[in-house]
Amino acid sequence: MSNAWFWALGGMLVAVLWLTGRLVTNEYVFFMGYAVAQYILLATAWNLLGGYAGYINFGTAAFFALGAYVSVAINKLVEVPLPVLILAGAVAAGAVGLAMGYLTLKLRGVFFSIATLALAIVAQAAVTNWEFVGGASGAYLLRPSEGPWGGGYVEYLFYVMLVMAVGAVALARTIERSTVGLGLSAIRDDELVAEAYGVPTLRLKLLVTVLSGALMGMAGAPLPFYVAYLDPPSAFNLSYAVNTIAMPLIGGTGTWIGPVIGAVLLTTVQQTAMVTISSAFNLMLVGLLMVAFITLAPNGIVGLVRNLRRRA
Amino acid sequence: MLDPLAVLNAVMAGVLLGGFYASVALGIAIAFGMLDIPNLSHPAFVVVGAFATWQLNSQLGLDPVLAGLVMAPPFFVLGAALYRLYHVCFERRGDAALQGLAFFFGMLFITEVALVLTAGADYRSVAAPYIGASLTFGGITLPGRMLVPFFVSIGMIVLLHQFLTRSFTGRAIQAVSQDPVALRLMGVSPTRIKTLAFGLATATAAVAGSLLIIIEPVEPSIGRDFIGRAFAVVVLGGMGSFYGMLLASIILGITESIVSDMWNPSWAPAIAFGFLLPTLAFRSSGLLGRKL
After folding, report:
1. Residue A108: which domain range?
2. What is the average per-residue pLDDT within B103-122?
3. ipTM score of the complex?
4. Which fold has domain B4-125+134-282?
5. Contact assignment for B235 to A298 by CB distance below 8 Å
6. How many beta carbons lie within 10 A of that of residue A299, not counting itself?
7. CA pseudo-torsion sign A299, A119, A102, A217
8. Contact residues on chain B for A283, CB-CB shorter than 8 A
9. In chain A, which residues have pLDDT < 70?
10. Distance (Å) from the C-alpha of residue B281 to the closest C-alpha of chain A?
């Protein structure tokens, strides 16, 4: 897909969604749209590090919840517009990514992954003990009844999330096609060889860890307004981590379109399953799909389509 | 002012707790430390072991520790089968690191949800004569529900250590991660040895699960709390060194116990991370082990 096409399609998508949004009166549509956009953002952020560089982050929930709780904390102190909260969430989560990455990225990828798993647990313990943002009992937020440009507030949240998601996908696509992207795929294929050929491996890994963490923080920042009540078990829910890993793996890692396909597919399936069947079964479905794709189709849907085309 | 007896009690409780942590980490010390297989789902298997123990105890009145031993052979077979799947799908493809981690994470999730769907999300506990009892001397109380798991855990670790250092098969397991080609030249199939070792690692989850449910009531998602702890002590102990892992477990147990008693129990799960991060950053060879 050429650049012109990508931007034309991206712009058209936002415009069409905005226009149809004018006609929609049912707020549920925006709730659902928000969930899809949020997962596109999270899956794309995860894929920057996991798909391009091959470093698996199990701590999505930590970065995501950090963004959400920074938002809660600032909102308690001063009333600022949502974009400021999002920026603050990005800075906080990016800083945690930098610290984590600096301490663990010099070792093999497995150790980074285990450290991120532990990070989620520590962050949850920290927030549970942080009384200012509600501690274990959670925080209530008053959602404004109207967005800044009229329309419902959830509608506004949806557009904000949509713009962030499209921006993240554009960023991922730019990275994929730049020398940074080439360096990252060299790291994924053989880090030792990459290092020997002069790829600044640590610097590249740190860069995408910070970017990935910051994007996850941005995804979390509007969450308190979306759910109106936030407590640690729901903000740190394991399903964020599982979904965020499952989506790129199902869609196809290593390409910008993979996480988008995975996120749209999985969120839609889950929203349907949530209404029709139990939520435990819903989680089972995600787990089974993820394991099935890793074992049987390691390149995801993108890889399957590519194989079909090659054969045709 | 700190009461010295209270501190001593907390330290003793920590030693017992740490001994139990070692039983959970043992399977990871074998799978991750020796075979280089990052089995994140091991703590979930421990919880499955705990639920199986609960079934055997409540239905048949079997002693929990005995139930754990009875469950060990079926766990061995399941573990061996899981390794075969892992081997075919990832090790042979040569893409073990990235995909393998995600695979085990998925297994962790599936195991947990399967438990919720079959046994429900409630807390379960077992009955045994030593659970309510306790030993007291000199103002120090040692509850039976901690003492029995401690000794069973230590026994299991010593036994396995003897097996790994004394027997031919055990030495082959230790050799397989270091030099599979040399092992093959000695007429041993690395895949068979790894299957055996991974089965053994999974079998320890059955026993660790029975110990877990003796210590506290268990619900399906409790395994997650042990992932950070188990991997932290395996890394801190020096990857595959059993006694290093045991030492690290006891240090972790004591620290957690003191923090819980003197300060705030809700911080306890975070301590393992506080151990793990500096170890990874500054001393990746751990307490008693080789460099990563």
Report:
1. 26-236
2. 88
3. 0.84
4. ABC transporter involved in vitamin B12 uptake, BtuC (1.10.3470)
5. no
6. 18
7. positive
8. 109, 113
9. 1, 25, 274-278
10. 5
